[in-house]
Amino acid sequence: MAYGFPIKRTDDPNVELAERALTTLNAALLPANFMVNIIPALMHIPEFFPGGRFKKQAREWKKIQEEMLEVPFNKVVNDMVVSAMFLFYFASMLMIYFLLQKSGKAKGSFTVSGLQGLDGNASSEKVQMIKESAGMVFAGTPAAVSHWR
């Protein structure tokens, strides 16, 4: 819901990361785990000083907290960039195709027939359907089948 990608029932890396982050947060907030939770002035002691181990632990746990925020967010941003690049690429290819068709250089094929039916009104779903159908047609042709043997 937050990022838009499905959650696996088992071994989902994002769920495991969130569980680790929440576990470390719970441990950090328990007053009995670190004296600094009871005596805030201890926050200013050096890490090497007795009782200063909480600083090292806090740095390690902070990395987990940051990872929980960064990893899924960056995946969404990355997917958006890839989608935008694909749309730009596809729009460029459609423009090239229509220019070739106008000049009479585009040869007849399943894909050409499908794209001709769009008349410039190409929704990404229709184009994807043509692309997947063309792939299935190609994969089932004798030339393609003999190539994979």
Helices and strands, with pairings:
Layout: H1 13-29, H2 53-103, H3 110-116, H4 124-139, H5 142-148
Helix pairs in contact: 1-2, 3-4
Characterization of this structure:
The protein is mainly α. The protein starts with 12 loop residues before the first helix and ends with a helix. It has five helices and no strands. The longest helix is centred in the middle third of the chain and has 51 residues, at 53-103. The protein folds into two domains: 11-104, no CATH class; 107-149. Helix content is 66%, strand content 0%.
Shape: rod-shaped
Portion in strands: under 5%
Please give the largest β-sheet.
Answer: none
Run of helices and strands: HHHHH
Uncertain stretches: 141-149
CA(first)-CA(last) distance: 43 Å
Structural class: mainly alpha
Summarize model confidence as the mean pLDDT.
75
Helix proportion range: 55-70%
